[in-house]
Amino acid sequence: xxxxxxxxxxxxxxxxxxxxxxxxxxxxxxxxxxxxxxxxxxxxxxxxxxxxxxxxxxxxxxxxxxxxxxxxxxxxxxxxxxxxxxxxxxxxxxxxxxxxxxxxxxxxxxxxxxxxxxxxxxxxxxxxxxxxxxxxxxxxxxxxxxxxxxxxxxxxxxxxxxxxxxxxxxxxxxxxxxxxxxxxxxxxxxxxxxxxxxx
Length: 199
Known about the structure:
There is one protein chain. With 199 residues, the protein is mainly α. It has twelve helices and no strands. The two termini are 37 Å apart. One of its GO terms (molecular function) is DNA binding. It comes from Apilactobacillus micheneri.
């Protein structure tokens, strides 16, 4: 069954009009109608609104395969949004306005791609793994991941301190990247371990 037909069946089962659904989800009635006749495909956040209104899990409405491409694109945007912030440190000594602008760009991209972090919950519901996490798990184990991350962080700090005038920006950049790699390693290798202990 196509996604649009599924959406219409759910609405019919709940005995809700398109106008009522539009008023409660803030999605226009025209869009909802186009979703149901498969003229337009809803994005994951619109599907999430519908699932919440119907009090259903997102996986009851949509299959992971139907939104996998969008999830991958949004995940990569979110993964890469750190680049402007990291590189802003390289320009901090030259022009602080460039740094501020790059950090602003990071937030705009981040908010657009994840809708203030809503995508994390959506990915969990659909059991979708961030593609960057999949790559890391394929080529690294827990020990190597932490060693590389701490090495980058330490080297960056040393470079920033020893060559303050010439390498401060690059040193901070490397240290910050290492710090985020440490956080990523903890999330990838140890978050499930902690959740299992709590159970």
